[in-house]
Design a protein that fits this description.
This protein is of the alpha/beta class. It folds into 3 domains: 143 residues, Globin-like, CATH 1.10.490; 103 residues, Translation factors (Elongation Factor Tu (Ef-tu), domain 3), CATH 2.40.30.10; 121 residues, Rossmann fold. It is 41% helix and 18% strand. It contains 12 helices and 12 strands. The strands form 2 sheets. The chain has a 6-stranded antiparallel β-sheet. The protein has a 6-stranded parallel β-sheet with strand order 10-9-8-7-11-12, with helices on both faces. Helix 12 links the parallel strand 11 and strand 12. Helix 6 runs antiparallel to helix 7. The chain is globular and about 65 Å long. The protein starts with a helix and ends in an 11-residue tail after the last strand. GO terms for molecular function: nitric oxide dioxygenase NAD(P)H activity.
């Protein structure tokens, strides 16, 4: 427990963190990787380059400071981040390194304003926060390893099948090299891929949502190839999977994780809203509902640029034909010649009001601008916030503004 003076000092730093938080976390990451380059085997390099990770850490530090006297209020965030830490194999011994580097970055950015009292208070606060993460994650490690088919760390899998789904999206069917059983999962969860492409100094790790219902002897991930643009380089892992991973290739995986999962206890109508490769958790959820809850009505609404990049279109249509409780709708931003769809342009509220039941549970997945637009449209329709489910894949961001 923290004493009242420590709590008071930490909370008093909130305005400073709001102003200098990103600068502090930028310094943190620079110093962390300079002093401990081995940690580049864990962190997502692309998120570092794009500034997403420093911003996410700044927001997390700000939330911890603002709630330091009631940390139970940020436990859901601790659990969400803890899932990712367990999937990445973040271990208790990493926390002192992070703490020392974070305190050093605070001192570096704030200079003389970071008094000894402030640094001491933050050291105590970080210890409490780190203990919360370590405790939550210890349980996750235990559950991942000891569940049927579970394992610790990373396990070798073989690419058993590789299916082209669109011009830019491919599905990979992965089976364990040792032939032993694999862990089940909740629809919406992800596995974590670790690869070391030729010419890369460090290993690269990415989370990919499982795109089929659980219960199969394989894991399926459906990956968009992230090609280089004027604004960002090509995705190292996605291009490796598309171009270098073939049938028979070995890929290391950590056990399934994640908190964005389908609530299967409900029988209310279900609406799945996806954009682009955000279809991956939706297909897993859709298959699960159709298999296990045949009386539950489900509407699947998908947005893509055009038919050339629309993955699994025929498969979804076949599910709709086979299951009368299901309806599917497609919106193309810019249809290609020969494309057919239900709407052109963008999914908007007037169209949603025509095709889905307001009294539904809504699940969102896709690019952040897509999810933000869907979330705000649904809220303007007075859909309750607790009926709208989503997770920002990668460093957390808000959809509310």
């Amino acid at each position: 427990m923290l004493d009242s003076k420590t709590i008071e000092i930490v909370k008093s730093t909130v305005p400073v963190l709001q102003t200098h938080g990103v600068a502090i976390t930028n310094a943190f990451y620079q110093n962390l990787f300079t002093n401990h380059p081995e940690l580049l085997n864990i962190f997502n390099h692309a998120n570092q380059r794009q500034g997403k990770q420093p911003t996410a850490l700044a927001n997390a530090v700000l939330a911890a400071a603002a709630n330091i006297d009631r940390l139970e209020e940020i436990i859901p965030v601790v659990v969400q981040i803890g899932n990712k830490h367990r999937a990445l194999n973040v271990l208790p011994e990493h926390y002192p390194i992070v703490g020392e580097t974070l305190l050093g970055a605070i001192k570096e950015v704030l200079g003389d304003a970071a008094t000894d009292d402030i640094i001491d208070a933050w050291a105590k606060a970080y210890g409490v926060i780190a203990d919360a993460f370590i405790g939550v994650e210890a349980k996750m490690y235990d559950e991942a390893a000891n569940q049927p088919g579970g394992w610790s760390g990373f396990r070798r899998f073989v690419v058993d099948r590789k299916e082209r789904e669109s011009d830019v999206i491919t599905s990979f069917y992965l089976v364990p090299e040792d032939g032993a059983p694999i862990a089940s999962y909740e629809p919406g969860q992800y596995i974590t891929v670790r690869v070391k492409p030729e010419g890369q100094e460090y290993e690269h790790i990415r989370h990919y949502t499982l795109s089929s219902a659980p219960g199969q002897p394989y894991y399926r991930i459906t990956v968009k190839r992230e090609d280089a643009t004027d604004h960002k380089p090509a995705g190292i892992v996605s291009t490796y999977l598309h171009n270098a991973a073939h049938v028979g290739s070995i890929i290391e995986l950590s056990a399934p994780a994640g908190v964005f999962t389908l609530d299967q206890s409900k029988e209310t109508p279900l609406v799945l809203l996806s954009g682009g490769v955000g279809l991956t958790p939706m297909v897993s959820m859709l298959e699960t509902v159709l298999n296990n809850h045949p009386s539950r009505k489900v509407s699947y609404v998908h947005a893509a640029i055009n038919g050339n990049v629309h993955a699994m279109k025929d498969y979804i249509a076949s599910l709709e034909n086979a299951h009368p409780q299901m309806k599917s709708y497609v919106c193309y931003e810019s249809p290609a010649p020969g494309d057919t769809c239900d709407k052109t342009g963008y999914i908007d509220l007037p169209w949603l009001q025509q095709i889905v039941d307001k009294n539904s549970d809504f699940y969102l997945c896709g690019p952040i601008p897509f999810m933000r637009a869907m979330y705000q449209a649904l809220r303007s329709w007075d859909v309750p916030a607790d009926s709208i489910h989503y997770e920002v894949f990668g460093p957390a961001a808000s959809l509310e503004n």
